[in-house]
Specification:
heterotetramer; A: Rossmann fold; B: Rossmann fold; Rossmann fold; binds thiamine diphosphate; binds magnesium ion; PDH_E1_Alpha_Subunit (chains A, C); thiamine pyrophosphate (chains A, C); magnesium ion binding (chains A, C); THDP-binding (chains A, C)
């Protein structure tokens, strides 16, 4: 999946092979089923601390990731389980991390909000709003400096557009012409507050692109191919020295903000309208309409259920992190002492 | 009397003051319509309306800037910084502006404002949502800093903070939101800068703050069963620090143990130890010992978080050991 | 000087009486001569710490202040001597503050960067970039809440537009519809770095107004009447419930950034071009062209020289702040103790 | 050997490391074309070019974000935060991100980066441009913190910091930029976490940091003329803290005095006093005494600033008095 046209104006989704399309479906289903399992485990009091589910937004991580290459960098938020999955991190270690087990991705030390998989270029999930936007610039700068051709993609929420770091990050990325793509996942809400009630413009990211000399780019975040096409263009632009792009992807989270939040603050009609735009059944129908066998998609669903079950087993089977882990890996020599 | 949770006490303290004084206003993220992510501000919007209880964007600098400016111009704002960890994104307003401006102006302006936050560990939220940062605040001249350890203190110290004409930071122990206590009916108003002796004993003094207070009390009971009688002081206020009460307790017992939630280096315990050894050297019967969270970020996993925080067991064993000196 | 038209579209400068115009001239001259004296005293090592001169930018503070009413609030930067002067603070206490004397505006405790005159609504000079933008919102909020009709004016530099607090302040002011006027004094430089080299857009404030749903407003900051007209409109809008305005006033500082900086990093042609646009001689010529007697203006110059000399005397005659002052006025009860 | 100012030593240390390692890059406000507002980076742009030495906008969060991200992705960046007071506008990156991310990731990533700033008083810049904030940094787990007190240490500790694989904050004493010393030619590389005994004496130990070091030395000489012989320790590094050297000096002398520039509460002096009384109680000959700036914002006027900072006279008189115990 690489493109030479400029798909920001001419999204090249027609060049997605059937296998590519099926893979997009698979990734979305994997994200969905994984998150549902997280929710179940949270209700069983096995997922500790907090957890922020991605249900409803799967087309964004999936479509963007498909446009990226191996070696590219990804920066995400606390709502980032799916972003790791689509970059290749297996389910088990993510789930084990959420359960606070020693076989977790970070041995249980980080937790749900701080997933990181450096081996796959995911340089972290960030839990303080806005931080990853400025940090992602640094990874992009390193790639630019070393001329590696790597592109950095940084995801964030609509609410993050109102914090100072957003502003600094955008200006900085543009003046240094960094190879970076910023993806605002506008799911219409911060925690419980509608974004429109606290934002001076309608489209919190796109309507601000001009403040950094960027074009406004808005995409239907529930249409995985549209996301893919837009992202592919932006990634291509970044990779070929064209500098940053700021994409606003419109979407909705089906559930509440975190943990057991039922999301009752949202008008029912609004919720229903967005549920009708659920990216997964809609894409499934589209694929079937294009001649993909329903059976093949069912198989993906079943395979994913199996994958999630296996991951759950693996996670549950992990022991508690050993006490010694408290004392390791503060410093790069592996230790944590503060005195000599 | 009624059973009130620590969480409910926050809203009750704010409501009490908003009823009394129209210049008291309240702002923060998700505080109005949603009643706060910790449900500490439930009911305020309904009672006081959207002019006085306001939701904000995720703009902590704007929140504290508005708070500071409004205080200078005649309001008495209360702001919420949702998790105290987020002070880091608006620290300039706290550490450089609201704390210093009165002094720099040699008194031309005052800052009658309160900032409240969920603080500290216990909920497995990981390193960026579990910190006790009360020592960051204590290190800044010009801030008053209180950490209530129970619902009654929460109401009374909130009232005292709102009535005070200087910037007061209130740290709510997140791990204690669900704790209940009998609370008297009617108005409760406490004073800033007063520690409280909550248990008397002749052998040693345990000074504890916030969520560490009940742990220190439980430890004192266990120690008592082993023949060590501890005075327990709830420090309550880091600035002003009630050195008088603390020194009196310590000088009577000759031994001091502090129980701190913040990471080890440069906490209030270090300050207190330094004060008592300098000013009360003659009473020292043995080394003062600090019981703290190690100098580490907090891990997320249950067992590791528990291991990091001072536990009742660790308090008991450290004091038992220390008293052998 | 009050206006009922909407001067943002229809600047009402034609309604300035001759006396008003002469007063604008006087205020600019006062600011200029005051700053020159500061510079002299700095070179004599009498002004302590640092000092940031306003020479070249006088038309902005003068024009804006003329559009404000008594009781309005003013927030400024470390480059704020002139802003206090035009709001009515006498020269002596400002100068004495810079000399670190007990008769200084804040008894010598604040210094040149932190001038404040609450009695005249100047709620402070701020030395950490961006802070005053968010703080000014609070004063505007208090006025709105108490329905006093007061307007808040907040000055800042071009460099400040790239810091996060700028972004948060603008969005916040707009969504709360605050009675506030933000005035960006674009003097083309941060300290030594040209603003265009570190900013993604050409006009650092105006090109970002749209990101907050505001109209771009640019004014010739060396034309005192143009500034006045634009400010009058914005103040009127704020006072009548129309919410915030963001004004970008284009100008230039004649000297260096601070202290003895000679400003050598600036191309000579650029400097010369701007010196030719010096707001004071130009306005002087304009007034003479309109029939004002040169003698009257000379008299102002002479009166101002006298005022500056007197202020200098007063400042120099002040004693050092008493040692006891170290210990006062941290807290509102006048004390500074941290223990009970 | 050549006479080098403290200010020049900064640039020399950076240049030494940039020559050695192409992955070392440098960014900050006005650092490239202008050579820094304190002229601590003069010549770097000329020697290393605009790809490696970069001016930034006034965007401290963007500066430290870029620094942190670049460190994670294989560079070894050095950033300047012009005045250390400005850490307050980007504290999240320091206190929550670069310091904690390695631990949270259980070692998946490292942060080989350095942040340098002008720190502290002496220039009459007032409360927001004169603070010693080294204790803010010391309170954050995951940061290494050094405060060189002379040109040779500046070069050597800069080199050590750049070569270290963890985040190191270097505090340059603004008040000492013009100080000169003889500096050996050639490469200078020091180690982090080593205090230095710079004077020996049997009666007491004076521990001092940064700009307080020369004052402590002058005080020690005056004390010597009055019959009190002090060991003077230049603490140099707050994290790691060289407890070994400090404890050895203190246990030999039995008395400790600290000389701190930061405002009083929760400084490194409190930490050090608490450590030595807990771990070296048996050596205590009298109360340890902290000599600090009062817990106040710094005033701008010359005489008041001078009054606030620990002066040679105050050090001498406090120690003279203290030794009477
Ligand atoms: C600086 C900061 N302020 C507040 C929070 C608390 N918080 C966590 S998530 C969240 C809402 C974020 O909304 P958005 O950016 O739209 O992302 P979403 O959760 O919708 O994916 C808030 C306010 C935080 N983590 N960091
Ligand atoms: C947060 C912060 N960063 C850096 C500085 C140092 N500094 C002081 S003035 C200045 C330049 C400001 O430029 P601008 O906003 O254009 O105002 P001007 O000085 O030109 O009036 C800088 C970088 C500061 N005071 N605060
Ligand atoms: Mg959202
Ligand atoms: Mg400027």
């Amino acid at each position: 999946m690489t493109f030479t046209t400029d798909p920001l104006t001419n999204p090249p989704t027609d060049s997605l092979s059937t296998a590519d399309q099926i893979d997009l479906y698979r990734q979305m289903v994997r994200a969905r089923q994984f998150e549902k399992r997280c929710y179940d485990l949270f209700l069983q009091n096995l997922v500790k601390g907090t957890t922020h589910l991605y249900i409803g937004q799967e087309a964004i991580a999936t479509g963007v990731s498909a446009a990226m290459s191996e070696g590219d960098y990804t920066f995400v938020t606390y709502r980032g389980h799916a972003h790791l999955l689509v970059r290749g991190t297996p389910m088990g270690p993510i789930l084990a991390e959420m359960l606070g087990r020693s076989n977790g991705l970070m041995s249980g030390k980080g937790g749900s909000m701080h997933l990181i998989d450096a081996s796959r270029g995911v340089l972290g999930s960030y839990a303080i709003i806005g931080a990853q936007l400025v940090i992602a610039n640094g990874a992009a700068w390193a790639a630019q400096y070393k001329e590696t051709g790597q592109v950095t993609v940084c995801f964030f929420g609509d609410g993050a557009t109102n914090i100072g770091a957003f502003h600094e990050a955008m200006n900085f990325a543009v003046i240094w012409n960094l190879p970076i793509v910023f993806v605002c996942e506008n799911n219409q809400y911060m925690e419980y507050t509608p974004i429109r009630s606290v934002t001076a413009v309608d489209r919190p990211a796109a309507d601000r692109a001009g403040a950094y000399g960027l074009d406004p780019v808005v995409v239907d975040g529930n249409d995985v191919e549209a996301v893919y096409g837009t992202a592919a263009a932006a990634v291509h632009k970044a990779r070929t020295g064209g500098g940053p792009t700021l994409i606003e992807a419109l979407t909705y989270r089906h559930g509440g903000h975190s943990r057991a939040d039922p999301g009752k603050y949202r008008p029912d009609e609004e919720l229903q309208a967005w549920l009708a735009k659920d990216p997964i059944p809609n894409y499934r129908s589209a694929l079937i309409g294009r001649g993909v066998a329903e059976r093949d998609l069912d198989l993906i669903d079943a395979q994913t259920r199996h994958e999630v079950d296996e991951a759950t087993e693996m996670a549950k089977s992990g022991g508690l992190p050993a006490d010694e882990l408290l004392w390791t890996n503060l410093w790069s020599d592996g230790s944590s002492g503060w005195r000599t | 009397m009624a059973l009130v949770t620590y969480r409910e006490a926050v809203a009750r303290g704010i409501a009490q003051e908003m009823r009394r004084d129209e210049s008291v206003v309240f702002l923060g993220e998700d505080v109005a319509a949603a009643g706060g992510v910790f449900k500490t501000t439930v009911g305020l919007l309904d009672e006081f309306g959207p002019k006085r209880v306001r939701d904000t964007p995720i703009s902590e600098q704007a929140i504290l800037g508005a708070t500071m400016g409004a205080a200078m111009a005649g309001l008495r704002p209360i702001a919420e910084i949702m998790f105290s960890d987020f002070y880091a994104v608006c620290w300039d307003l706290v550490a450089n502006e609201m704390s210093k401006s009165r002094y720099m102006a040699d008194g031309q302006v005052s800052f009658p404002l309160v900032i409240k936050s969920g603080n500290g560990a216990g909920l497995r939220f990981g390193a960026q949502h579990s910190q006790d940062i009360s020592n960051w605040a204590m290190a800044i001249p010009g801030l008053k800093v209180v950490c209530p350890s129970n619902p009654v203190d929460m109401i009374g110290l909130m009232a005292a903070a709102v009535r005070d004409n200087d910037p007061v930071l209130i740290f709510e122990a997140k791990g204690m939101y669900a704790e209940k206590a009998e609370v008297p009916n009617g108005e409760i108003v406490d004073s800033l800068g007063k520690a409280k002796i909550i248990r008397e004993g002749d052998d040693c003094t345990i000074a504890a703050l916030g969520m560490m207070v009940p742990r220190a009390m439980r430890a004192a009971e266990i120690l008592s069963s082993r023949g060590i009688e501890a005075t327990v002081v709830d420090v309550r206020s880091l600035v002003p620090l009630d050195v008088t009460t603390l020194m009196a307790a310590y000088s009577r017992t000759g031994r001091l143990f502090t129980v701190e939630e913040n990471p080890r280096l440069c906490g209030w315990g270090a300050e207190l130890v330094s004060i008592i050894v300098e000013e009360g050297f003659e009473y020292l019967d043995g080394p003062p010992v600090r019981i703290t969270t190690p100098h580490l970020p907090l891990p997320a996993a249950d067992n590791l978080e528990d291991l990091a925080l001072p536990s009742v067991e660790r308090i008991v064993s450290t004091i038992t050991e220390g008293m052998k000196y």
